[in-house]
Structure formats: structure tokens, C-alpha cells
Amino acid sequence: xxxxxxxxxxxxxxxxxxxxxxxxxxxxxxxxxxxxxxxxxxxxxxxxxxxxxxxxxxxxxxxxxxxxxxxxxxxxxxxxxxxxxxxxxxxxxxxxxxxxxxxxxxxxxxxxxxxxxxxxxxxxxxxxxxxxxxxxxxxxxxxxxxxxxxxxxxxxxxxxxxxxxxxxxxxxxxxxxxxxxxxxxxxxxxxxxxxxxxxxxxxxxxxxxxxxxxxxxxxxxxxxxxxxxxxxxxxxxxxxxxxxxxxxxxxxxxxxxxxxxxxxxxxxxxxxxxxxxxxxxxxxxxxxxxxxxxxxxxxxxxxxxxxxxxxxxxxxxxxxxxxxxxxxxxxxxxxxxxxxxxxxxxxxxxxxxxxxxxxxxxxxxxxxxxxxxxxxxxxxxxxxxxxxxxxxxxxxxxxxxxxxx
Amino acid sequence: xxxxxxxxxxxxxxxxxxxxxxxxxxxxxxxxxxxxxxxxxxxxxxxxxxxxxxxxxxxxxxxxxxxxxxxxxxxxxxxxxxxxxxxxxxxxxxxxxxxxxxxxxxxxxxxxxxxxxxxxxxxxxxxxxxxxxxxxxxxxxxxxxxxxxxxxxxxxxxxxxxxxxxxxxxxxxxxxxxxxxxxxxxxxxxxxxxxxxxxxxxxxxxxxxxxxxxxxxxxxxxxxxxxxxxxxxxxxxxxxxxxxxxxxxxxxxxxxxxxxxxxxxxxxxxxxxxxxxxxxxxxxxxxxxxxxxxxxxxxxxxxxxxxxxxxxxxxxxxxxxxxxxxxxxxxxxxxxxxxxxxxxxxxxxxxxxxxxxxxxxxxxxxxxxxxxxxxxxxxxxxxxxxxxxxxxxxxxxxxxxxxxxxxxxxx
Lengths: 405, 411
Hints:
The structure holds two protein chains of two kinds.
Chain A: H1 29-37, E1 40-45, H2 48-51, H3 69-74, E2 77-84, H4 92-112, E3 117-119, H5 123-131, E4 135-142, H6 151-159, E5 162-166, H7 190-202, E6 205-207, H8 213-222, E7 228-229, H9 246-254, E8 258-261, H10 265-268, H11 270-275, H12 278-291, H13 297-313, H14 323-336, E9 341-343, H15 363-371, H16 376-404
Parallel strand pairs in A: 1-2, 2-4, 3-4, 4-5, 5-6, 7-8, 8-9
Helix pairs in contact in A: 1-15, 6-7, 7-16, 12-13
Chain B: H1 3-9, H2 30-42, E1 47-51, H3 75-81, E2 85-90, H4 98-118, E3 123-125, H5 129-137, E4 141-148, H6 157-165, E5 168-172, H7 196-208, E6 211-213, H8 219-228, E7 234-235, H9 252-260, E8 264-267, H10 271-274, H11 276-300, H12 304-320, H13 330-343, E9 348-350, H14 370-378, H15 383-410
């Protein structure tokens, strides 16, 4: 979940370069074959927020947002991490209660669509879902504030099927610093390190998106299993604290981890970041509030996306094409290596670039990468195999630690 | 958890006439029966549907793996007593509601999971009757979880489902106080039984395969639950009102209605639920005990372990001073026998309330359980009927609850 435009960036003009533009109808037979025979894993989708209004259902094709079963099928999305998210400012038992209701909402959607969805908690279950022709539904908790500084709650989430936790959201929590807050813990506290160790034991992937650079390095030092960044892009291209520096990506790769490229325009494109000033953010916020209740996150994300596009049409914000995603993937592959890059769209939680409006557009990534000369094996790694490898490794570490009790 | 009842709820009771249980007669030679009973007991699944041992997990001095000098349940004594299936109760004060109640309940569910994990050589977490049978086959104790009080779902049906997904297999609809949607037997009725939302809760429990527990609830709530539920109900820890007139116990009519729907009354061993003289004397002491309760609360804060210990000491002292009569464990047999005579051996089971109530003499802890088997055998109960009472009936209700859940989920 990106708080739309609220983090205005440092203005640095950068030349966005566009190459290998592909339209939805323009996917080669080779790309189609490759894409639909690969397990495409998306590690971050905020669609969960939409479940909470009691009306949205994943079954029918929706006119809004980016994710539903028909569009996942059309886009060949084989595994999706539904994000459990509440604002950083909600803490304590209230945060736990609200996180639980979102976990329930995901599980209820899976129960309601047993023909199309299957809850998965391991890499093997993701592959099994594919074998059965179903989409694997997974869960990630986006922000350590939701455990209420309580390892028991963390374990309960794991027992309910949560497979990763982002250590913070946009604010610091009780035991970890966020990249978009003032540092108070100097990274991870001792308890924060215990949280990471317990996640290792439970087989939960440690997600370092959103956390401060120091928290990231503390995690690298503490974690026995490879961490990943569930939805972060490259700071070298777009200088957002939410993105990763080249050095961070190298260090993450050395530990076996994966950076999952986020499609949010404000993380992809430096010019966009520069033009998304606090004034624009305020104006956008006001527009959104005209249409949505203060606590209706589902409405806010849909309206935010719609109004942002209006701002682009009015010339208030630059137009960013989906090819910027390819640019970030390529950069990350160059820096971190082919085994350490994946996809973490932030669908239904961020502003998508033109040409990547929803899950149906995903084959364009495969097409673009093939055109860039990537081998089919390498494309499969980026689409999902790298993430499945991290999951398998995290599970192995968990088994080892369980064995030690 | 029964403790607070004496302080706050005992005064609600109307004293009834003491009905003495039938005495034991020995149909065979003592040694022969003792031997046969032992064999039967230790080859059977002995399932206790209510143990407040969970509270002890939060005390530093307690270790379920070791023989403890106090309390009623730990692994060595479970092995001694042949108690090989146990429902750990998740319980918090009924006046705590909303998100804090959910958080505290989660802490306790986690504590059960963690204690089972740390003792995985001896125990295994079970969710179904088949899993309990499998645990027995492997020589392990089956650990199950029940939530004692609907207030812990924070008035949110989604939290109920999450509890189910975390392994909770029954929920008592209320504790000592009414919750948002069900009246308790020890509170002033405000909902006239179950509210519409309360009925939805029961339906959702059916769908999730969570047994509906009607211990603690008001009579009207009981009848509402009986009408709504598609699966049989249990009273996880209640005894017979005909023998001891306490609102926490069940009237003969209620027991009959429960049985007609395939349910089971799990006999509670708490002294004031099984013995009229004790209950009457206890009621007389209430005023003093309430003052003591406040004192204990001050001394112990939120430490339930400390509170329970002080309460027990107070009971012991009152007994020594002659203010409370002695109660024999044989009252438990009287209650089992009364219920069996009323509705048959298919509808009676064991719900001790160990670690949450005051045990009668001779049933000081779970190591004494084989005495129940022997006493029933001496009364002339068949082996088959004894097996049902010890655990078979509860497994049957679990299986039926699972079947109803499968049917509802397929719809």
C-alpha cells in the first residue's frame, strides 16, 4: 500500500527512456506460451482492502481496480500475495483485531471460490495449485505494528497462513525503523531481532520493503533465511527512500534474497516523483475525500487511482509508461543478478503506469523481456521462480530450526 | 473457570432439596473389579472437555512437563490418570470485551500451541475426532482448545472464524456475564436468550465445525441455541440441578432436551455444583468471600494463578473451621449416574473443570480419574457404556459436528 503521492520526492530531473513498447494485443506466440506456462507470482497486492466493504467479490470481472479472478486468469497470474494492511497509526489490540478480520476476509474469498483459488503456504502448495489449474492465494502482513509487539500474535498469523511480514509500514513500529519516518531505534531493537529469528523459525519470509536502510542491514545480519523486498524498486533510477540502492540490492542478493519490483509510478519515475509535490498531494487527498469515507481504504485506492489519471490528463503529473517497470527489472538484474529479481506490483494499492492498468497486462512484461534478449529460463525466474526458491529456502531453514527446538 | 462464581453468583441460587445419590454396591470381588477397571480405563480414550490449565502457562513456576506440587493437571499426572485427551480452556474475565479480549484470547491460544509444540513427544494438537483417535494410537495426549466465553470474539463473527482456523473446537456462548449477544446463567438477562446476531454466531459455529457449548448460559439461551444449532451441543462442564440446585447446572428437562438433540452433558467436579450442603454453606459465606476476593485481587493483581491459590487456601481454612462441609469425589459418580438414568449412557461425559474449580476429596487431581471407571464398573455399568462416558460420546459429537460443517460448507 502506497499512500498515494504523500511522500513527495527530492526533485532530480532524470531522462525516462522508453523502449520496446508493447500493446496488450501485441504479445508474440512465444511470449504467450512462455508466460502462460510459467508460474507468475506477484508478492504484493492490496486487493484485501476491497474485500472489507462487504460488496466486492473476486469472482466477477470488476470495472475498477486491478485484480479479480477473471483478470488474474487472463493475465496468467498464478500466485498472489494478498496484503494484510492497516495504517501504521493503528496500534495495540485494535491493530491485531483489524489484521485478523483481513486474514479472515482473504480466507473467506478462497472458501467462496474453491474452483479458482487455493490457499497456499509453501512453494510446493503453489506448484500444486498450478497443477490443479487454480490460482495460489497467499498472505503477507504489511507492517510489524500489527503484531502488537507480541510474538504470540506473530505465531497466530503464521498459523493462519501468513507467509511474510513487512517489518514496518510507513511509520516506525515499536521495534523497527521505517524508511519514511524519523529513525528512533537505530534499525532493529533487540526485540526486533527476536521477531526476525521467530519468523525464521516459523518459516515466514522477512520482508524488508518499507524499512529504513539500517533496519535492512540489521535484518541481513540477523536472519538465517533469505529476506525479500516484497514491493520495492531501484533508487538509482528513482530516488525514493522506499526503493533500494544498488549496494542494498547486491547485499540482499548475496544473502539469496529477491527484490520484487514495485510498479508504483512514484517509485518508478524520477520526474513523476519531482512533480508530485505536497500541494498536488493535498489536492489529490481533497478530491479523494469527496468520494470516500475516511476509513474506506478500498474506495480511497480506487478513487486515488482514477483522480491521479485525471491529473495526468490535465498535465499536472507526467505520464509514466509501463516500460519503466522493465527498466527497473533490467537495472536490478544488472546489479543483483538474474536470480534476485521478481514482481511485487502493489496492484490495488498504488498508481499504476500506463499500459499496466491491471493483471491482464502482465504478459507484456514477458514479451518485453524476451525482446530485450532474456532467455526463457531467465524470464521464468523473474516471473516467479526466484520467489519460489526463496520460499523453499525459508521453509528449509524453518525445518532446521524446528529440529533444534 | 468456576472460581468467581462463588463470589458473585452463588447468591443468585435458590437452595433446593438435597437429593442423595445412590450408594455404590459391589457386584464382583473387589480385586477382580479393580483389575478389570484399570485395564479398561487405560485402554480407553479418556477425554476431559474442560481444563483451565491454560491460565497456568502464564505462571513462571508452572511446567506442564513436570509433576507439579499444586494444581490438577500436568503431563506426568495425566499419564498416571490415563487422561489422554484434554480441552484446554481459553478464558478471560467476562468484563473484558472488544479488541483487548481478542488479543488476550490469542495469547492463550498461542500458549496452548507453544506448550504442545515444546512437548511434542507427549502431546499433539488435535482438531477432529479422527486426530484424537490417531493421537491415542500413537500413545500421545490429544490437546484440544475450547474458548470459554463469547465475549472473546469481540462481537465479530470474523474473529470466531479465525479462532476456528487456529484450532478452537468449541466455544462456550457466555461466561459469568452476558456478552453482547447471549445471556449468562449468572447475570441479569438482557437479551432474552440469544440475540439474532447470537443465532448467526451459532450458525457460523456449525459451518466452521466448532461445537456449541451451553455451559454457563442462561436457560433461555440454552433453548435458543438448541433450536438454532444444526449440530448437537455440549455442556462442557455442568452438572445436574436435580442433585445440586445451582444455576450453572442443568435441570432434568434441559438434560433431556440436550440428549434428544444428540448432545452430551459433561459432568463438572466443582464442589458447589455437585453437593447441595456445600453449596448452601458456601452461599452463606459469600459476603466474607467477596471481601476476600477484593483483597486477593489487590494482592495478586491480574495473576490468576495467585488468585486461585489464595482462594483455595481460604476454602481450606473454612473447611477446617467447619464452615464448609467435606465433599466426597463420589458425588461425581452420583451426578453421572443421575444423568445416565435420565437420558442414557450416550449423553454423559466428563468436564472436570480441573485447575479452575475446587475439587472434591478423592479427586485432588487428574491422576485420580481411574476411580471413576472403577466406581462405574462397581455400579454395574458395561464396559461399552463406561467407554462412552469416558470419551466416546464426546468424540461422537465431534464427528457429527464435523459432518454438519462439511454439509454446510458444500452448500
